Amino acid sequence: MERILTYAEAVREATEQEMARDPSVIVLGIGVDDFKAVYGTTRGLLEKFGPERVFDTPLSEDGMTGVAIGAAMAGLRPIHVHIRMDFVMLAMNQIVNIAAKARYMYGGTVSVPIVVRSVIGRSWGQGAQHSQALQALFMHVPGLRVVAPSTPYDAKGCLIMSIRDDNPVMFIEHRMLHSQRGHVPSDLYAVPFGKARVLAKGSDITLVGISYMTVECLRAQRYLGEVGISAEVIDPVCLSPLDIETILTSVKKTGRLLLVDSGWTVCGASAEILAQVAEHLQGMPQIRWQRMGFAPVPCPTTKNLENLFYPNAQTVASTAFAMVHDNQRSWVPVHKEASEIVEFKGPF
Amino acid sequence: MYEVFYRSLFRIRRVEEEVAKIYPSDKIKSPVHLSIGQEAVAVGACEALRPTDVVFGTYRGHALYLAKHGNLKKMIAELYGKVTGCAKGKGGSMHLVDAAAGFMGTSAVVGTTIPHAVGYAYAMRLQRRETVVASFFGDGAVDEGIFSESLNFAALKRLPLIFICENNFYSIHSHQLARQPASNIVERARAYAIPADRIEDNDVLRIYDVVKRAAEAIRAGTSGPRFLECMTYRWKEHVGPNDDFDKGYRSITEAEPWFAKDQVKRIRDLLVREIRERIEAEVEAEIREAFEFAERSPFPPDEELYTDVFAEATQWSAS
Q1: Is B309 in CB contact (< 8 Å) with chain A?
Q2: Which of A55, A109, A347, B159 has the fewest CB atoms within 10 Å around its CB?
Q3: CA-CA distance, B13 to B263, in Å (whole number)?
């Protein structure tokens, strides 16, 4: 029988099971032990594992990242949680200058097995500093793993993988994914890094969605099916290392690639994927490609502008439709706003 | 005890002098920040710690590395960029490391290792170990926000940790009083309720005593973190092998009192000649051997460019 959990529950379960298995796993971050429990993802951990292994931190993102790194050098496996990725910007020094480089610059004698969990994404007027998705900044830096699972199954498996991996891992979770439901086995399992998933088979166009945009791509795929277009949907799951082979195989078959990021396009994850595809497939002129992502502006708070800022199933489907028809025809599917967006209420 | 101090002080001084001597040959093709003049802080503190205690330092880390009994051959080979170096030639002078000696690494970005010492101390507490951790940093690091963040958390959690500020008055060429409103770093620690001492005269024996007592109190569980501000003086230029008293930012007059309290000479004068000469001969032989080792060691093979970026697949298998 299928066991259905939400993404947030899957994150919580992975953490709890790993903490029970391995006493070196600790959880720290602003609010991890409070009643909100970071969207429920850390609920119950304090009660089960005590305040030495689960603790709130001062508002010192850079310092506490350094504390996590030092603890990791001593053999712990810290999970440092940030309720907004925007706040991780305060820790860039420790992440980029130390975590990513310690193993290399110390000649392989030092390990930094930390997991930096951060929440990205749209919702309910969070605005310019509470909604950024800056995965590309971390993809740029050698020495960091970057993983952005989109399903509850992968959320659990990737988090377990991230905890057990001896490298620093940026674990990126979109707020709109937290309520997504799906099959999650109760046992411990790890989803390996660097393996993309083909979530829907198709022959006319390849849609690659990053993080939450995978969900919108799957909706777009259904819209497209209604007008006779067969879209293949790929979730990279892991952004660094990137499984480019799975994407290449699909693009060679469909001849069209639409990359949809839950972040900006300029120098973004979509730019990197497209660059790698171009390097591999140059000389195949019949291939068409396009990118979608945040509008190239800071995120506005007001609802009507916010809706324009983000790609959604409707804009993805109509862009894909135009690509399939060589921009000779246009079409906009009837679209209902996604329930998770409608239902999500702040202010937290 | 004086023999132990002298061996360590003399060894650091002579290693640094040899590095300075060889530097113009361009055999060391990367920046070196020499510790000459500041040896006493590292030696006094490290001799007061146990071999199993752990230290974190700065890019001016030669003295600390050697004082914590880091491997000299591996250090010189590292400076030469050789594969036999402590970081296989990939780190150089600014990223010395010798985990086996409890020397956990140095960073070229000011202040960045302070929280690592705090985190390491957190792990020691969680694992119920007796280890005391020491964090070494300069007066420049105090300017960084992470200094305050680290002190705050260490005090909050009462961690087994000693903060040691090596105040040499200058961040590169900028005097402390051009960056901070007063010379009161020690007071900042007290603001976090961390017991703090300031030692004015680079006195290696006093530094030893204070660190020894601090480590004992921490190990006994009667004290949380401690803080020590050690006034000291860098004799050479910020980076490189030369003097720089003619560059206008500081004067030889300012330096002279520090030359007069040179701790290498001070402890040497406390030893009988026979012992002193034996120590010096042994240290000179060790240094000669280390430089010869570095000279004849190979550079890393090309494939080393790509190793050590990530840990290889972990011991368990992903399903």
Answers
A1: yes
A2: A347
A3: 10
Confidence of residue B317 (pLDDT cuts 50, 70, 90): very low
C-alpha closest to that of A325 among A201, A205, A203: A205
> Which domains does chain B show, CATH number per domain?
2-298 (3.40.50.970)
Q: What's domain A4-183's superfamily in CATH?
A: Thiamin diphosphate (ThDP)-binding fold, Pyr/PP domains (3.40.50.970)
Q: Give tens-digit pLDDT for B71-91.
A: 999 999 999 999 999 999 999
Alpha carbons A306 and A84: distance in angstroms, whole number: 18
Chain B hits for A113, CB-CB cut-off 8 Å, are 311
Based on the residue annotation, tell me whether A340 is a catalytic residue of this protein. Answer: no
Query: Could B97 and A53 be called an inter-chain contact, meaning their C-beta atoms sit closer than 8 Å?
Result: no
Contact A66 B95 (CB under 8 A): no
B120 touching A, CB under 8 A? yes
Q: Is the pLDDT of residue B318 over 50?
A: no
Rg of chain A on CA atoms, in Å: 20
If you compute the radius of gyration of chain B from its CA atoms, what whole number of angstroms results? 20
Q: What is the ipTM of this complex?
A: 0.96
Q: Three-state DSSP class for B145?
A: helix
A193-233 pLDDT tens trace: 999 999 999 999 999 999 999 999 999 999 999 999 999 99
pLDDT in tens, A266-302: 999 999 999 999 999 998 878 999 999 999 999 999 9
Q: How far is CA B85 from the centre of its chain?
A: 18
Please indicate whether the domains covering A4-183 and A197-343 agree at the CATH topology level: yes
Other beta carbons less than 10 A from residue A27's beta carbon:
25
Q: What is the pTM of this model?
A: 0.96
Q: Is A105 within 8 Å of B152 when comparing Cβ atoms?
A: no
A11 touches chain B (CB under 8 A): no
* Residue in A292, A286, A136 with CA at minimum distance from that of residue A209: A292
Catalytic residue check, A13: no
Whether residue B97 and residue A60 make contact (CB cut-off 8 A), yes or no, is no
**Is the model's pLDDT at A32 over the cut of 90?**
yes
Domain locations in chain A as residue ranges? 4-183, 197-343
What CATH code is assigned to A197-343? 3.40.50.920
Q: Is 80 exceeded by the pLDDT of residue B6?
A: yes
Catalytic one among A80, A82, A130, A178?
Answer: A130
Tokens of A37: 């429990």
Of A67, A93, A107, the CB nearest to B118: A67
How far apart CA B174 and CA B169 sit, in angstroms, is 8
Q: Which H or E run contains B205?
A: helix B204-219
